[in-house]
Amino acid sequence: MRGLLVDARRAWLAGALALVPALAPAQFTVRSEVDARKIGIQDQVQLTITVEGSGAPEEIALPPLTNLDVVGGPFQSTQVSIVNGRMSQSRSYTYVLQPRGPGKAEVGSVRAGDQAAPAISIEVVAGSVRPPAPQRPDPFAMDPFGDPFEEMLGRRRTRPAAPKLLVQASPSRARLRVGEPLVLTYWLDTQTSVADLQFKEAPQFAGFWVEDLERPQPSPSGEAVTVEGETYRRFPILRKLLFPTKAGTLTLPAATFRIGLARQSFFDAGGVVERTTKPATVTVEPLPDAPGFSGAVGRFRTSATLDRDQVPLGEAAMLRFRVEGTGNLKWIDRAPDVVAKGARVFPPQAKSDLKTTADGITGSRTWEFVVVPETSGAVEVPPLPFSWFDPSAGRIVTAETAPLALRVEGGTVAAGLPGPAPAVAGARAGGALPLRSDLDRHPAAGLALSGQTVALAACTVLLLHAGLWGAGRLRRGARRGRAASPRSVRVALRELERAGNEPMSKEQAASLVEKALHEAFGEIAEDDESEPARAVRALLDDVHFVRYAPQLGEYRDKVRDLAARAADAVRRWA
Questions:
Q1: pTM of the predicted model, to two decimals?
Q2: DSSP code string of 531-563
Q3: CA quadruple 250, 256, 257, 261: dihedral positive or negative?
Q4: 3-state secondary structure (DSSP) of residue 115
């Protein structure tokens, strides 16, 4: 029996221990509350969202509102409480809400990470149900130094001594270069319990780029320090990451905090005191100058890649240039210039993946270039240089990416049989891109033929292409110097209407616009500087950009604008 009791106790203890992880409290909690559940349509209600603990998101989204409008806020406050030597923090967001009409109203569920506060229902009635605001007492009818309760008892309490609190601001370094990070930490030294702490007015850091760092997580009991012979408990309360933007002696301004004092007894109402930090100065040295250097400071590495190493003529490849590391990454707002012989390179789109830390901004910035080959064969992307100042080495470092090769297929009659290019509607003088729809028309391959058949077919192809080429020259020559036929104009306008109104991809729409322009205007010589020629060339440039640009957003409005501009050009000049 005794053995059975021991086994039962062990089993119970194991089950209790298994429940401990499930019952462990979350690192932070979130709650929402309103100051009234029943209001009139003429009244307002105050919503307060409070987050307590550590690890909560920096921003808390406003929950969905039903039959309510925001007329004030959010008013944000941060409370730091130090009671019995232990520290806790909370943030509050306060909104003022106005009902839209009588009936049911609701403040939706508030979510922060994996925590949530339940929705709150409010009843809205006609008129006003709020009691009138209490009349404030006349300050001149009372003893400003007395306590009404104490006077009623016939005695006066001795006023307590002024609380001893200090606030300090300490920079992590006193000398640095332009663009180097500096951590500014605000400290609270206290001998009493604190209920609230916040800036009276946020300081302005002239000459610095400012980033917020995560709130420090101090020891709950703080750190014991001695200041001028007095013992205090020290707590870090706020940190800022500063990047100087100019050289010289820069000042970190004084900051004033409003500190709420906790009640010490039943007769003590607490209070609010103000404390101000001392200003500090730092010496900022200029950066050296060098060709190609744009102000990047830190430790970086670069890379360049193509999303493919082979494309058909008329298709596009994506070139990605990436800078990653730690430093003033947000200042790096420009990629190297990319020039690839035999290809057109469009302006890049920039993407960032950044995180702010005490060492600087860590992560990467990537620029994506659309590269459109204009000729078959090999296209080389040359080495791309990037320069930055390395503080540990004390000098400017320049690195280059490796050259990249892109093989472009297509653009010839047959392998090993060069011949004159066919006259396609999308080709312009001066090496412009042919139409994608024409480039996509490739004959099927893979049939096994005899040598005589191949030779005969090659000759026939050459003759046919020569005939088409000559006919195209004659037709374009006939088109020069006179207006397009009414049928060509009608066809062009019909294609442009389709491109602007019918649902299709941006590539299909751009192809239709380009076909319509070539149908109406034929070949535009590169040395033609007339107004119609310049307008059509500009339109074709925009068409190519839309066709080959990465799909980073909605292009329908841009396509409609292109189709409308092209239609105006056709009606005006074709």
A1: 0.52
A2: HHHHHHHHHHHHHHHHHHS---S--HHHHHHHH
A3: positive
A4: strand
Q: Do you know the residue count of the chain?
A: 574
Is the CB of residue 398 less than 8 Å from the CB of residue 301? no
Contacts of 437 (CB under 8 A, 6+ apart): 426, 511, 515
The two tokens of residue 349 are 């789109």
| Alpha-carbon distance values, 288 to 177, 285, 387, 388, 391 (Å) | 10, 9, 12, 10, 11
Q: CA separation (Å) from 325 to 66, 287, 298, 328, 362?
A: 46, 19, 8, 9, 6
Q: Which residue carries 């003033």 as its tokens?
A: 328
Contact 195, 226 (CB under 8 A): no
What are the structure tokens assigned to 216, written together?
């420090």
- Provide φ and ψ at 166, rounded to 5°: -135, 150
CA distance 308 to 60: 42
Tens of pLDDT, residues 317-363: 999 999 999 999 988 888 899 999 999 999 888 899 999 999 999 99
Name the one residue in this structure whose structure tokens are 């409010």.
Answer: 122
Residue 307 makes CB contacts below 8 A (sequence gap 6+) with: 317, 318, 320
Q: In angstroms, what CA-CA distances link 541 with 183, 343, 344, 548?
A: 48, 14, 11, 11
**Residue in 530, 525, 294, 549 with CA at minimum distance from that of residue 429:** 525
Q: Do 186 and 198 contact (CB within 8 A), yes or no?
A: no
Residue 3 parent element (H or E): helix 2-23
Encoding tokens for residue 425? 């509607």
Q: How many CB atoms lie within 10 A of CB 139?
A: 7
Helix (H, G, I), strand (E, B) or coil at 81: strand
Distance CA(348)–CA(367), nearest Å, equals 6
Report how far residue 166's alpha carbon sits from residue 232's, in angstroms, rounded to the nearest whole number: 9
pLDDT digits (tens, 9 = 90+) for 129-164: 876 655 555 544 444 444 554 444 444 455 556 678
Token code pair at residue 476: 């374009």
Quote the CA–CA distance of 380 and 110 in Å, as a whole number.
Answer: 54
State how far the Cα of 428 lies from the Cα of 421, in Å rounded to an integer.
Answer: 12
* CA pair distance 185, 528, nearest whole angstrom: 65
